[in-house]
Model the fold of this input.
Amino acid sequence: MSEHILFLTGKLAEKQLRNILEKMRPDFTYTVYQLGLKVAALMTADMIGRRLTDTFGADRILVPGRCRGDLEALSKIMGLPIERGPEELKDLPEYFGKAAQKPDLSRYSVKIFAEIVDAPNVSVEEVVKRACYYKKNGADVIDIGCLPSTDFPHLEEIIRTLKQEGFTVSIDSLDENDLLRGGKAGADYMLSLHESTLWIADEVAATPVLIPEKHEDLASLDRAIKVMQAKNHAFIVDPILDPLHFGFTQSIVRYHEVRKNHPDVEIMMGVGNITELTHADTAGMNALMLGICSELDINNILATEVSKHACRAIKEADLARRIMFASKEYDTLPKHIDPGLMALHEISPFPYSLEEIRELAGQIRDPSFRIQNSAEGLHIFNRDGMRSATDPFDLFPKLNIENDGGHAFYLGVELARAEIAWQLGKRYTQDQTLNWGCATDQAELTVDLHTFKPSGTTLQKK
Done:
């Protein structure tokens, strides 16, 4: 017996909801009920409790995505599940498609080493602060980076303090003395040993990361691997990732060769040589590099946030590793799993066509402005008609708000957002900040525009 779903909506959206459901040809039966309000986005849990007297034999109720209030409590009162649907009606087909898959992003296989590259010049307190930030953004290991020919008197204190605070720690240096000191202080990993310095691994408990004796010398790396395997000593291998135009493609070939020759060894990739040394948005770079890691079963990366443009690199790598894990597990392309790495663009930026927006505008009978985008540009409308443009300054003379400073400020903010969204191909929703994915901490950007919003403006949601 198929599931029966009750869809609650408002007057302006009822016709479109029915049309979408009809075209979906769903495998469930449904009832559409108009709850007695014009704009569906203004629906609240309390309103549903007061106005809904018949559930029409539904197995569950689906309400607009922006419905406010405690739906869990209302579900208990009404005796059936009540869920929020997508914020845009046009996303209903995708919503029901996703509901069947529900990718699990709680799992991953790649361990992130987050390097503090200038640790000798940083106080213990600042190192702990950075470590907490990196861990919050997904780091599994805090890598203490030493500097050539630079004294590091508080190396041991940093490592011991981090260990006391519960961090997993690695020491990162090519200097034998730094590695010995770090290992004896309690570091869990050592970056990096090569064929001539393998003796250090016998002196401390830290797991070493092995690199070629000389750059590109995989034969020396193979010999180091055999020595460590003969001793039954844990280790990780790093063939070294090179920057673009300085051997990047050939270094990827080396990673492939090492994996082919050593199918069971743990491998590390220093993705910072790409994210730090390429002036392009790092979210896409992290997606690609973690995709390569997934294909080659590389389960450790070294990430950094030194360059200002790479200030979210660890957070992006964390999401990328989860997306790639889910993609590999479900044997699917890394699409429609999570949009967090799409900072500048959107899967479906313009859910409504110009014709559909015109149809909605023709139904408006009040003075409140609604703003929507289509592929053609920005559209603002109320009972007095619809105005369209690609530049908000072209709209201002037509809105008759010159003597209403609060109204002008509000519409200026919203139209600026709409313009940015239209230019980039992002989703715009009136009264909401633009979604920049994991490129920002969205909570920090949330502003209650209702503080400034005059009475002559309303939500555009249907």
Observations:
- Confidence is low (pLDDT under 50) at residues 443-462.
- The chain is about 35% helix and 15% strand.
- The CA atoms of residues 132 and 167 lie 9 Å apart.
